[in-house]
Structures are given as structure tokens and as C-alpha cells.
Amino acid sequence: MNSSSNLINALFIFVLAGFIGFEVIRRVSPLLHTPLMSLTNALDAIAVVGAIVLVGEHKSTLSAVFGFIAVVAATSNIVGGFLITDRMLKMFKPSRPAAKSSTESVTK
Amino acid sequence: MAPDLAGGQIVIELVYLVASVLFILSLKWMSSPTTARHGIWAGEIGMLLAISGTLLRHGIIDYRLIAIAIVLGVIIGVPLGEVAMTAVPQRTALSHAFGALCVTLVGSAEFYLRSPNISRFMMSVLSLEVILGGLTVTGSLMAAGKLQEILPQRPLTYKGQNLVNFLLLAGALAIAVTLVLHPDSKSLFPFMILIALTFGVLLIIPIGGADMPTVISLLNGYAGLSAAAMGFVLDSKLLIIAGALDGSSGLILSIIMSKAMNRSFTNVLFGAFGQVQTSAAAGEETRPVRSATAEEAAAILSSANRVVIVPGYGMAVAQAQHKVRELYDALTKRGVDVRFAIHPVAGRMPGHMNVLLAEANIPYDRLIEMDDINGDFPQTDVALVIGANDVTNPAARSDASSPIYGMPILDVDKAHTVMVIKRSMNPGFAGIDNPLYYLDNTLMLFGDAKAFVGSIVRELTGGHS
Predict the structure, then answer these.
(1) Domain range for residue B117?
(2) What is the ipTM of this complex?
(3) Nearest to A77 by CA among B351, B349, B72
(4) Is B18 part of a structural domain of the chain?
(5) Which of B62, B72, B92, B98 to mutate to test the interface with A (most CBs of A within 10 A)?
(6) pLDDT single digits (tens) B143-156
(7) pTM for this prediction
């Protein structure tokens, strides 16, 4: 299924992405650790692509059912995760009195 | 070598590449509150691209079922995005459970589709995926239950707990090894999942509320790693990248949290946290403390130049953050410099206090991290502790016999006057006595945090100007 060169490629990607993650996350302000967690949670729900394929290809009843539940779970994480992260970040305001209007629309 | 990709396939892979870049940018922009909201947009666009790309894939025939599942997910997701800020820790735990559920289900489905044609490496990664995923599902549900107070928050320990956990994990690994060698043993697979699910429950049973920030971060890391493993199984580079980012985020946060509690990282990794500290300091209740009324507290605060407020979980429980904002406004109006000292593990998840105070409209540049504010306490006129206990306990610095000895704390005792709002003299959550309360420069303000801060505000605004 997966040739060994594919596997090595995947390992390279994993290790390098881990390093990028480490360097990027280290610089996140502790102020924003809660929204960081809800954001990574939403991004992690990209696992939905694997679930979509399972449902879409419908290779067996079991795989379609499992895939269906997985799509529901992941989608709720995507929607809920982005929504709440956005709500939280909107609350963080600097000292200088409101320069921007508060009429920004809510993201989907 | 991989077979040459068809034209459409290349486009989809390129879309995934763009999505990966957007995900990394999304996290990069979280470095500061001024750019953080761009981060959300980058993340959303990346997500939209990736999902659209996937829907274009050759071989997808059943769009109706996908659509129904997505609609259902939106219906569940929207309320989860609109919970109150005080409920964010349990919401986060719940979403870790959902993420891990998705990964575990996809992993299981892939096993049954592919068995027995699974290479040894693939089976190892698949086992890792479902074991990590499974224990994160139940572990996160337990954590959410404890945070929502559906389950008892008290840590539950029994003799041989670590041995039982270790044996369970060993059992799951033994099944994994068997499956790697004999990928046709389909009947063993459910047992591996079952053990992982049980392990997740047992892992969280001994965890108390004060350890939640570490545990939530750790579960976040596990969820990310299991997603990365799923990326290996599906040969999806995008998923490997997203999983690696989420995994490193969770692991970094757990390291920060464990440092802030003076626990070694290995101690945290192997779930040895949450050992109940037997409260050593009994029988010292008779030591005298000085207390003050709201009127006296208001007088001291209004004559101060520099005030540092130290919020803790108690503030969240009492829902006092909006009253605290009124206090901040009243004092600032009188020319008092008011700042907030944030301990990394104050609250129930990383950054918990910052979110609550930001919700109450306190500007984020007034929220100061522990390391940046500790040097300022000697020049602080009043340190006002609201619902925080262990993170201000000077025994962590001086008393080697204290269970929290060595934990970095906020040096509130160095302020000229310390005021502590507390319901009674009962020791805090961890059951550790706090010598801070008996110091000469400490005034105890007995009462509910919200009510007491409210009466200080009334004194400040009504009494004088």
C-alpha cells in the first residue's frame, strides 16, 4: 500500500512540522493560551478530510457509519472551535480607548 | 515509488499545500493579540480549501450523506462555540474528545477495510492512532465531566492505581504487537480499543481540579499526535502537519504548566500527577489573623499608588470578574495604578484568567505574567488576592516540607499590604495551609468574592467623590 519512500517522506514531514510547531507555538503570548488551544483544536479537526473520504467512498456499511459519526464530530469542532476562538480574541483590547468600532460582523 | 499523479490529483495536493501554509501562518499570528484575528481567518480559509479539495476527490460518490453529517456537525458546533466564557475549560475538554473520537473512528474503519493487507509499519501507526485516540476520548470526557461538576472533582485514588494503569497499557500494547505480527486477527482489534477507552477513564480519575491545566494540555497533545498518526495511515501530508502542530502545541503547554507547578515533564507524561497531598498543616488554625471590613479595605486601596490584583479560580467560581472590572475602573479613576498578576496555572486551563478578565473588558496590557511582575511586588502598596491560594503560598519558597515546595509563586507577601478575599479560613483546594494569611502585613477580607468586591466598589464610588 505505502512504499517505503512514501513512509520516509511522511516521517520527514512529521519531524519538520513538529519543529515548526515548536518554534511557532513557543512565541505565542501566554495571554492567548486559551484561544490558542481552541484554535489548534479547530485546525486539528482537519481530520474531517479522512472521514469525508470514508463516507463518500462508502466501501462498507461499517466504514460509512464510522465515517459519518467522525464527520459530525470533526465538523462540530471546526465550527465551534473557530467561533469561540474568534469570540475570545475579540474581547482582548488594549488600554487605549476604543479606536475601532464594535460593529465587526461575526464570522460564520 | 508512488505512481504518477493524475492532473486532478495534483491540484488537490497543491490545495492541501496551501492549506498547510495557512495553518502555520494561523498559529504564527497568534503570537500577539494585535494579529491574532488574522490567524483565525487564515485557519478558516485553509480549512475551507482543504475540505473543498477533498470533496473533489475521485471516488467520492455519496455526497448526500456527507452533507447530512456536515449539517449535523454545524448544528452541534454552533452552540459549542457560544458557551459562556466560564465554561471554556469544559468545552475545550469536550472538543478534545470529539477530535479524538473522529480519529479513533477513522482509524478503526481503515483497519477493517484493509485487514489483513496491512504492512507492519502501517499497523503500528494505526495502533498508536487508535490507542492514543481512544484514551483521549474517554479521558477528555472525564475531564469535561469534572470541570462541569457532573463528576466529583475530588481526586479519587486507590492502592495499586499506577500498577493497574500500567497493566492496562501493557495489555493494549500487547494486542497492538500481536496485530502488527498478525494483521488478520480482526477479533482482537475491539479489545485494544476497549482497553484504551478504559485506560482514559482511569487516567483522569485521580486528577484534581488544580491539575486540570496540565491535564487539558496533555490531552490536547495526545489528540494532536493521534491525528498525525492518522496522517501516516492515510498518507495525508496535510493531516500529518496539522497533527504535528497540534501535538507540539499541547506538549509545549503541558511543559509550561508542569514547570509552573514544579513537576517534571516525565512525571506529567506518565500521568503520575494528582497524587493527593495529605494536608500536613492541621492544628495550626489557632494562629491569629487580622481581618478588615469592606470600608477599611476601600480606604487602604484608595490611598494606594500601586495595586496588583491576583485572580484565581475562586474568582471564576464566584463569577466576580465583572465586579473586579468595576473595582479596576473605580481605582483607575482615582489615579491608582492597577495591574493584574497572572500565574500560569491560575484557573482550570492555560490562559483561563486572561480570557475571563478580557471578557470583563480589562485591557490586556494590564494583565502581567508572573515572571514580569514578581520583581514589582516590593514597590506595590496593596496586593489584592481574589480566589487564589496555592499560587501565592510563600511556603513554596521557604518550607521544604510543604507539598508545593519549589513551585514558582507570585511574591504577594512582599507587597506593603496584602489583602486576601476568602470565604473562611478553610485551607484551599489542595488542602495546604497558607502562611500568607498569618503575616503581619496581611489583612483577611472574609466573604464571597463577588459580594465583597461589590461592597468595596460601593465604598469607593458612593463614600467619597
Answers:
(1) 88-276
(2) 0.88
(3) B72
(4) yes
(5) B98
(6) 999 999 888 877 77
(7) 0.89
